[in-house]
Amino acid sequence: MRVKRADDASALFSRRVRFPSRWRGLGDNVFEVKLVVQVKLLPTPEQAAALEATLRTVNDAATWVAALAHSQRVFRNYDLRRHVYGQVKDRYGLAAQAAQHVIKKVADAYTTLHAHVRNGNLGKRGSVRRERVLARPIVFRPGAAQPFDDRCLSWRMDARTVSIWTVGGRMKGVAFTASADQLTLLAAHRKGESDLLYRDGRWFLIATCDLPDVPVRAPDGFVGVDLGIANIATTATGTGDGVRHSGKTLNAVRHRHRELRRRLQAKATKSAKRLLRKRRRKEARFAADTNHTIARRIVTEAARTGRGIALEDLQGIRDRVRLRKPQRVTLHAWSFHQLGHFIAYKAARAGVALVWVDPAYTSQACSACGHVAKNNRPDQETFACTSCGFAEHADVNAARNIAARGETGWAVSHAA
Ligand SMILES: [Zn+2]
Fold first, then answer.
1. Which CATH superfamily, name and number, covers 216-248+282-413?
2. How far from the centroid of its chain's Cα atoms is residue 73's Cα?
3. 335: number of Cβ within 10 Å
4. pTM over 0.85
5. Rounded to the nearest whole angstrom, what is the distance from the C-alpha of residue 238 to the centroid of ligand 1?
6. Per annotation, catalytic residue among 7, 195, 395, 407
7. Where are the domains of the chain?
8. Per-residue pLDDT tens for 339-389?
9. How far apart are CA 245 and CA 291, in angstroms?
């Protein structure tokens, strides 16, 4: 099996972006924010050939190091470097920095793999899948991501070009595109390594930005965010009207892709597999775009009205999305996590207070009188309180409950 690596967008996201969960960061009213900015490169054909040769070489080198690490049972960066640094440099004609990055990449990949094994993600001890994965060294794809630090990569923001180390020497003037927002971010806050990767016929640099702490403003009330499938997000204040962000388009895209996947999976050809991978990434990109848009709207509105944002605790979301099909669970749970993360970091950037709340019974409790009952919810869309008669769209009622919990949570944590 091929182990998923950091060139996968989702893996990158979880690897690079750390977010405070629950109350962390609220005590002193600041969040630390790391942002990942994806920049598309526009190399000339000659430049593309040099990039291609470079990425192929470093990944060949990584595969070679990984095989050695596997056979010698040496996995730690420091030990591995002592073993192979000179060899990998000479054998593949790498610059010192590149050789070090290759070795560290291999060490990191094994660390991740071993963590997966420890957490039982590859099955129990002795399971066929786990044994098969452990029996073989990690293999790096020719286009897999490679980190470049400031010595190997420099950015010229005014010219919108980068200069980058390649196997053929330093290459200057590689053009890139980025949105105005991204350019501002990069110019002000880019820090540390960037990953070069090749995906679906395109070149990218994934840069990390460290944002300074933005003080969180004391909120004037809270808006609750209820996450769902029919409506991706529904927002409401404790008593106000709700705003529903429909999942219609996203669900239609997912449905279309699912149909196509079924057809492609029936054909087991190489090109079908490639198309399948491409489709999956396209769907993920679309979901991410949708989540970005929704998160931006929610945070902008909260900032405009001076409110804080209450989100259901992510663990709870995972528990709640128990659909029958396991694949769908992962997909939606992942998408919820992503939306939660997007809201969290956009809120942090805007100085908007954010509170994670306990999601238990938010859909069954009456936001008017507090009565909790399963049959308060006659169907998916409707909330009708069996005690006080209050009726509202089910998602709006849930969002109001979440807003109220946010308010309470904030008050508790900020009591004098
Ligand atoms: Zn009621």
1. YqgF/RNase H-like domain (3.30.420.140)
2. 31
3. 23
4. no
5. 14
6. 395
7. 2-210, 216-248+282-413
8. 888 898 889 888 999 998 888 888 899 999 999 999 999 888 899 999 999
9. 10
| Burial class of 52 by CB neighbour count within 10 A (0 to 12, 13 to 18, 19+) | middle
pLDDT tens, position by position, 148-173: 999 999 999 989 999 999 999 999 99
Query: How far is the centre of ligand 1, averaged over its atoms, from the C-alpha of 355 (Å)?
Result: 25
DSSP-derived pairing of the beta strands 153-156 and 231-237: unpaired
pLDDT at 346: 87
**Ligand 1 center–CA 412 separation, angstroms:** 25
Look up 312 and say whether it is catalytic: yes
pLDDT at 33: 61
Look up residue 48 and give its two tokens. Answer: 């593309």
Place of tokens 């005014």: 158
DSSP-H helix ranges across 203-322: 248-266, 270-305, 314-320
In single-letter form, the type of residue at position 19 comes to F
Report the separation in Å between the CA atom of 270 and the middle of ligand 1, taken as the mean of its atom positions: 57
Q: What is the per-residue pLDDT across 290-328, written as a single tens digit (0 to 9) for each?
A: 899 999 999 999 999 999 999 987 554 444 444 444 444
Q: How far is C-alpha 352 from the chain's CA centre?
A: 21
Is 90 among the residues known to form the active site?
no
- Residue 32's pLDDT band (boundaries 50, 70, 90)? low
C-alpha 171/C-alpha 165 separation (Å) is 6
181 is catalytic: no
- Cα 229 from chain centroid? 19
User: Would you give the end-to-end CA distance of the chain in angstroms?
Assistant: 55
